[in-house]
Amino acid sequence: MSQRARLAQFSRLVLIAAFALTGCHSEESVEHGKGSAEVGEASWYGPGFQGNETASGETFDQNKMTAAHPTLPMGTTAKVTNLENDKKVEVRINDRGPYEGDRVIDLSRAAASRLDMVDDGTSQVRIEAQAQPHTDSDNTSR
């Protein structure tokens, strides 16, 4: 095989490896700094999901202060403020979603009740990550 052919083959392999590695990440790796804010529409879920398994493996309890978020790491504590009435609640992320429209968070019924948004079903909110769970890699010295 000529040097030119080997170089072309090597280039193809590098390109294939680069494409393969770009997909090797989890949603959990998304960076969300403490205090970073996200604004958008919130909804809530409850009775039809009571007792179902969440994406974190926990059993969903609509009476706990929990929420579903598409990218915040599981276990993250977030402050959610209803921008329509300035009511606030702290929730723990234990599920993925919402999966409807441009909504940014799906709250448990209990959290939605504290924000006084159960009757309306949705509300404009600000989400601020407060604390993220520690992982084993956080304690690894380099």
TrEMBL record:
Domain RlpA-like protein double-psi beta-barrel, chain residue ranges per copy: 38-127
Record field: compositional bias (Polar residues): 51-65
UniProt entry tagged with the keyword Repressor: no
Location of this chain's protein in the cell: Cell membrane
GO molecular function: lytic endotransglycosylase activity
BP GO annotations: cell wall organization; peptidoglycan metabolic process
InterPro entries in UniProt: RlpA, RlpA-like_DPBB, RlpA-like_sf, RplA
Transmembrane segments: none
Membrane topology: Lipid-anchor
Signal peptide extent: 1-20
PROSITE patterns: PROKAR_LIPOPROTEIN
E.C. no: 4.2.2.-
Region (Disordered): 41-83, 121-142
Keywords recorded for this protein, A-Z: Cell membrane, Cell wall biogenesis/degradation, Lipoprotein, Lyase, Membrane, Palmitate, Signal
Domain of life: Bacteria
Pfam families: DPBB_1
CC per GO annotation: plasma membrane
Family to which this protein belongs: Belongs to the RlpA family.
Function: Lytic transglycosylase with a strong preference for naked glycan strands that lack stem peptides.
Record-given protein name: Endolytic peptidoglycan transglycosylase RlpA
Gene it is expressed from: rlpA
